[in-house]
């Protein structure tokens, strides 16, 4: 699957695992995107940049990093530093939106009250997410 940032200076390819869209409500994602981030899981280590002159990596936590375009600011991916897990911005992919399914929300205990999705999703709290990452270390 191919993708790119808004300005087109950063292009990538990745092998998506499925069509399940995940939403993150953590404070960092909301500040980084001015909203929630919607992502698709990809095959670990399948993220390959074909144009990356504007690609920047932000060291956002002990175990994770975020990739974005330094020219237009598009959020592109979040991945574990050990490369065991990576997800990409669903809207940066050249993928028909009709093929997607909103599946889960993480950091649900950080979600502000002023918005909600109408369909039912799997939901995980911050503690549940951190437990998963600690199991993968």
Task: Identify the notable features of this structure and list them briefly.
single chain, Metal Binding Protein, Guanine Nucleotide Exchange Factor, Chain A, carbon-sulfur lyase activity, 13% helix, mainly beta, 11 strands
Provide an overview of this structure.
This is CENP-V/GFA domain-containing protein. It holds the Pfam family GFA. Keywords: Lyase, Metal-binding, Zinc. GO terms for molecular function: carbon-sulfur lyase activity; metal ion binding. With 137 residues, the chain is mainly β. Helices cover 13% and strands 42% of the residues. The chain has a single domain, classed as Metal Binding Protein, Guanine Nucleotide Exchange Factor, Chain A (Beta Complex), CATH 2.170.150. The strands form two sheets. The chain has an eight-stranded mixed β-sheet with strand order 6-7-8-9-4-3-10-11. Strands 1-2-5 form a three-stranded antiparallel β-sheet, with no helix packed on it. The longest helix is centred in the C-terminal third of the chain and has 11 residues. It is globular and about 35 Å long. The chain starts with a strand and ends with a helix.
């Amino acid at each position: 699957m191919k993708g790119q940032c808004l300005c087109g200076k950063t292009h990538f390819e990745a092998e998506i695992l499925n069509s399940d869209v995940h939403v993150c409500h953590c404070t960092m994602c909301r500040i980084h995107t001015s909203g929630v981030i919607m992502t698709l899981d990809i095959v670990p280590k399948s993220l390959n940049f074909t144009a990356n002159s504007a690609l920047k990596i932000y060291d956002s936590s002990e175990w994770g990093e975020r990739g974005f375009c330094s020219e237009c600011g598009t959020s592109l991916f979040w991945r574990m530093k050990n490369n065991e897990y990576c997800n990409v911005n669903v809207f940066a992919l050249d993928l028909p939106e009709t093929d997607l399914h909103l599946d889960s929300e993480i950091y649900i205990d950080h979600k502000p009250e002023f918005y909600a999705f109408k369909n039912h999703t799997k939901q995980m709290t911050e503690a549940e997410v951190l437990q998963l990452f600690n199991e993968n270390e």
